[in-house]
């Protein structure tokens, strides 16, 4: 039975499934994770989990995390496809509607993908670095959505990921990558955007860069470039969705 105050809050502002708007009780527990995720069972089940990994340069499927089709190019672990309606709704809510709680189901999707690939856990532990926003953009939004995802993921895999949110700094306030249509335009737009503030924490380490969506892979490749230059042994990408 809900406490009286929670019952009143639910009556006035009933929690809803983010993708479909279905009303949810505060006591609603998602059967996949055992936690409240602000998404109904039907919507969560409608999100397909990918198999394998992705080359960040050409988008080709990669069967393992090593020996990708483009030498020196980071491989991306992508949980699902951005073309999925429910995935788009959750990511849009997190990035543009200030619905921070959307980070929970999105992190759960990544967790489901990781759980189906023992190779990821076996190769750990990893340093987990969220793609940073420029300070002006983060101030306007109030948070960095990639860091929220990273924090949730470290709770789910505390032995596998160690969060390091202050090593990679965005030094250029560039136009959104969504305004650049071609791969070359996106690569040019993001070039020189990042700086490594604490290289000593990365020397010899395997790093996962986490972001919400990867389209051309340009942002992850540019971040990987500066992280490797700072001494990281290997850099991989980790995203909710591949567009």
Would you kindly provide a written description of the structure presented here, covering whatever features stand out?
The protein has 243 residues and is α/β, with parallel strands linked by helices. The protein folds into 2 domains: 1-46, no CATH class; 47-242, Rossmann fold. 35% of the residues lie in helices and 18% in strands. It has 9 helices and 9 strands. Helix 4 crosses helix 7 (145-156). It is globular.
The protein's oligomeric status is: single chain
Strand content of the residues, in percent? 15-25%
Radius of gyration: 18 Å
Into which percent range does the helicity of residues fall?
A: 25-40%
**Structural class of the secondary elements?**
alpha/beta
Amino-to-carboxy terminus distance? 42 Å
Mean of residue pLDDT values: 90
Count of alpha/pi helices: 9
Shape descriptor reads globular
Can you tell me the CATH architecture of the largest domain? 3-Layer(aba) Sandwich
Number of domains: 2
Element order: H for helix, E for strand: HHEEEHHHEHHEEHEEHE
Low-confidence stretches: none
Count of DSSP E strands? 9
Given this structure, which CATH class of the largest domain is correct? Alpha Beta
In CATH, the topology of the largest domain is named Rossmann fold
């Amino acid at each position: 039975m809900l406490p009286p105050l929670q019952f009143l809050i639910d009556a006035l502002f009933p929690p809803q499934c983010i993708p479909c708007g279905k009303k949810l009780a505060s006591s609603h527990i998602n059967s996949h994770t055992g936690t409240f995720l602000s998404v109904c069972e039907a919507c969560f089940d409608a999100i397909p989990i990918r198999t394998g990994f992705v080359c960040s340069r050409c988008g080709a499927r990669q069967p393992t995390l090593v020996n990708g089709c483009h030498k020196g190019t980071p491989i991306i672990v992508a949980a699902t496809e951005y073309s999925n309606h429910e995935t788009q709704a959750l990511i849009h809510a997190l990035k543009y509607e200030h619905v921070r709680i959307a980070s929970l189901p999105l992190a759960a999707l990544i967790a489901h993908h990781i759980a189906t690939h023992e190779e990821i856990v076996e190769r750990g532990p990893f340093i987990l670095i969220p793609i940073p926003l420029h300070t002006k953009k983060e101030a306007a939004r109030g948070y960095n959505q990639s860091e929220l995802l990273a924090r949730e993921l470290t709770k789910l895999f505390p032995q596998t990921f160690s969060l390091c949110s202050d090593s990679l700094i965005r030094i250029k306030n560039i136009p959104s990558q969504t305004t650049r249509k071609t791969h070359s335009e996106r690569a040019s737009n993001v070039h020189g955007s990042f700086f490594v503030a604490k290289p000593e924490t990365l020397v010899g380490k395997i790093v996962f860069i986490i972001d919400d969506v990867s389209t051309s892979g340009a942002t992850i490749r540019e971040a990987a470039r500066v992280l490797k230059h700072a001494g990281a042994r290997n850099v991989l990408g980790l995203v909710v969705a591949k567009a």
